[in-house]
Amino acid sequence: MQATETLALDDLSLKSVKGAMAQFNAKQATAFSQLDDISELVLERSDFMDQLLIQLWDKFTNGMAKELSLVAVGGYGRGELHPKSDIDLLILSVHPLCPEVEQQISAFITFLWDLRLEIGHSVRTVDDCIQLGLEDITIATNLIESRLIIGNDASFSLLKSKLHAPTFWPSTAFFSAKREEQRQRHLNYRDNGYSLEPDIKSNPGGLRDLHTLYWVARRHFGAANLLEMTIDNYLTQAEYRELLECQNFLWKIRFALHLVTNRADNRLLFDYQTDVAAKLGYQGQGNAGIETMMKQFYRTIRRVAELNEMLLQHFDEDILGNAEIESVPIDDHFQLKGDLIVLVTAGEFFHRPESILQLFLHIADNPNIKGIYSTTLREIRESRRRLTYWLQDIPPCREKFMALLKHPRGMGLPLTLMHKYGVLAAYIPQWNKILGQMQFDLFHAYTVDEHTHRLIKYIYNFPTKESKVEHPICGDLFPTIKKPELLFLAAIFHDIAKGRKGDHSELGAIDAQAFCDLHGLSAHDGRLVAWLVKHHLVMSVTAQRRDIQDPDVITEFARVVQDEKYLNYLLLLTVADICATNDDVWNSWKGALLKELYYQTQKALRRGLEKPIDVRSRIRDHKQQALNKLLGKAFNSTTVETLWKRFKADYFLRHTPSQIAWHSEYILQHYDQDKPLVVISKRASRGGNEVFIYCKDSLDLFATVATELNNKNLNIHDATIMNSRDGYTLDTFIVLEPDGEPLAIDRTREIKPALEQALSHPENVVARSQRLSRQKKQFSVATQVNFLSNKNHRTMMELIAYDSPGLLATIGDVFQKLDVMLHTAKITTIGEQVEDFFIVTTEDGHALDIKQQNELKQALVDALACDAHS
């Protein structure tokens, strides 16, 4: 692209200027679509804005503002403008403005706003600038980047001279402030740039990290750009080219994002990823274009983060004088400098690649080591890129990798640094494939590699006090497993086949088995690792989407697990996997389900799978324990037994003695049988609050309750639907707040009368309209209805559908219209979709035949299709 043509507008009316801007924007959009040099486009836009502002300045000041300077600051000061970038202006004055000039400046700024430009402006004297800059590092940074557009050169030169004075933010203070600013910014993103909706500018590894290098170089070294940093070897020519390449890629995404959104938005949301990928020329079926673009994005910010850390360490030595810290030898090749490990033998990593693994073993051995020295980072980067084989192919590397896996601290900081600096990707070929691998749903918050890294950290932290509070079983269990390295290996491989065609669990199990064989693990240990990878989802699915009150479900799960050792490993992997998915997915309900499944399976395995549970004995035991509780509250056994004769045997099997006693106490005290009884547990039970409903049964009861609870913004996670022999409901709903927390006391007081009113007058219950979240609108889920089997005259059905507002009420309406009786519901929401489990029968208590199943399936598909688009 040629340099911007001289802009000369004869007519500076609002309409004329808008037309010139529209013509320029169209020209740039066309050039961008032809994949022109992004740096030229960015600089051309800055040049265009300079010329436009010069002409408008002359028009509005009419030569009267001779003492004023129009100055570009911030990104505009650097000459970097994207389609919707802020135009940051400083109007510099030697003296305070007179009223006439103030009016001219006001008219100038108003005109710019009328042009719909994103203007940020300030009017200050030189002394004001210096004073405010000393008080605020952000203002100081903007001033350091200042550039004169038009006006009084003398006043601007005075400002620049004062900015360069030793007393204005000495380089030591400036460096410390910018480094702390970056640290705080990274903390805001939890030191993680790998969320699925990243911020191009502020994410760790984003444009701001590049700006930080530029600002420090300019303030301390007086460098006009990073290229000048190569002169004194702070930066190699290759590293400079890499920074430039990363910057240009991030610029392309930001430029495209502004074109797509038509506003100054730096967040690459799901809403925009498809269009941005298309503008950048990424193609492919389905999400292939987005996947390719995002993978390149994540790999780019990883490179930026590496270079940023390495260069800031260099600056730390030069600016703060930390190069004088005494070095302490570790062995012939490594030293400790402060809390950083240093490679002292140049080329060691290339000539003896196993020494890369030795570096991380030293970090595991010495808890005082907090990181890797900048020169050593450079050695890792260079040797990693020169490798022509995988590190796992080298026997000494395999030996050291296994030593790391078995080291008590190996999966702590060493694993994190191996992931961060690309060593894990250089060791395991399959890991390299999942770097930056997108996950196209609202359930996962991170890329596949980052999710796996977080999973490993959860396992590693299970024994800590903080983790034991939230996961007490895992905290007690982890120290008892004899070979935790097998669990860590299963964690590494559990999602490693994502992005490939086929079942990622099965493909990952094959990869894990091959890895174990290569690394000399015994056949028994290799089978365990491969089994964990293959079955890493089964415990979660069973707990959340199956009826774990059914003894047969427990027996079936126990047969898959095989023995108690496998069960222990699987529980640890399952809990960590759920927690590492995103920061909001774990709640007490999931914890309660997994705990219940774990202990029931443990009992089944210890009892022996050939000895099934004696159902009658369990019912007798539940009744006796419940009766003992009621007798202690002054109820007599005759009254209790009379009530219980109305209940079916299944009721006593599926409820705990405490629940039975709780229900019975309130029913016995409920004298108006025509009025619905609603009782809400004061404390969380089984991870949520129980809502118990006792009233005359009706087909619309489930839909009514589901609608009212949805209107109260509550999530139903479980429903046990039962009736007595004489036609009364004995329904229990487990509910939680949308954030996964149990109900507050004041909420229970609000919900109880609302449910009583709804059950008394179901004809008045109307679902309140609720908006879909911005994120959910970007996804669609095809409704799937699967009938698993018929058992004990009941039909088990699994439903996968889009999580639209009022979903359960819609399902309840379908059941009602088809005279389908609901007995059990387990509600699982995974991001934008639900995966629910129902046990149903016909109105007369029989399993659904094939015709009835097909009718129900079609009715659900039709109803949910309408519901999703209403």
UniProtKB/TrEMBL annotation:
<dbReference type="InterPro" id="IPR013546">
    <property type="entry name" value="PII_UdlTrfase/GS_AdlTrfase"/>
</dbReference>
<dbReference type="InterPro" id="IPR010043">
    <property type="entry name" value="UTase/UR"/>
</dbReference>
<keyword id="KW-0511">Multifunctional enzyme</keyword>
<dbReference type="Pfam" id="PF08335">
    <property type="entry name" value="GlnD_UR_UTase"/>
</dbReference>
<dbReference type="InterPro" id="IPR045865">
    <property type="entry name" value="ACT-like_dom_sf"/>
</dbReference>
<dbReference type="InterPro" id="IPR006674">
    <property type="entry name" value="HD_domain"/>
</dbReference>
<keyword id="KW-0808">Transferase</keyword>
<dbReference type="InterPro" id="IPR002912">
    <property type="entry name" value="ACT_dom"/>
</dbReference>
<comment type="function">
    <text>Modifies, by uridylylation and deuridylylation, the PII regulatory proteins (GlnB and homologs), in response to the nitrogen status of the cell that GlnD senses through the glutamine level. Under low glutamine levels, catalyzes the conversion of the PII proteins and UTP to PII-UMP and PPi, while under higher glutamine levels, GlnD hydrolyzes PII-UMP to PII and UMP (deuridylylation). Thus, controls uridylylation state and activity of the PII proteins, and plays an important role in the regulation of nitrogen metabolism.</text>
</comment>
<feature type="domain" description="HD">
    <location>
        <begin position="448"/>
        <end position="570"/>
    </location>
</feature>
<dbReference type="InterPro" id="IPR003607">
    <property type="entry name" value="HD/PDEase_dom"/>
</dbReference>
<keyword id="KW-0548">Nucleotidyltransferase</keyword>
<dbReference type="InterPro" id="IPR002934">
    <property type="entry name" value="Polymerase_NTP_transf_dom"/>
</dbReference>
<keyword id="KW-0460">Magnesium</keyword>
<dbReference type="Pfam" id="PF01909">
    <property type="entry name" value="NTP_transf_2"/>
</dbReference>
<protein>
    <recommendedName>
        <fullName>Bifunctional uridylyltransferase/uridylyl-removing enzyme</fullName>
        <ecNumber>2.7.7.59</ecNumber>
        <ecNumber>3.1.4.-</ecNumber>
    </recommendedName>
</protein>
<keyword id="KW-0378">Hydrolase</keyword>
<comment type="similarity">
    <text>Belongs to the GlnD family.</text>
</comment>
<dbReference type="GO" id="GO:0008773">
    <property type="term" value="F:[protein-PII] uridylyltransferase activity"/>
</dbReference>
<feature type="domain" description="ACT">
    <location>
        <begin position="690"/>
        <end position="774"/>
    </location>
</feature>
<dbReference type="Pfam" id="PF01966">
    <property type="entry name" value="HD"/>
</dbReference>
<feature type="domain" description="ACT">
    <location>
        <begin position="796"/>
        <end position="870"/>
    </location>
</feature>
<feature type="region of interest" description="Uridylyltransferase">
    <location>
        <begin position="1"/>
        <end position="329"/>
    </location>
</feature>
<keyword id="KW-0677">Repeat</keyword>
<dbReference type="InterPro" id="IPR043519">
    <property type="entry name" value="NT_sf"/>
</dbReference>
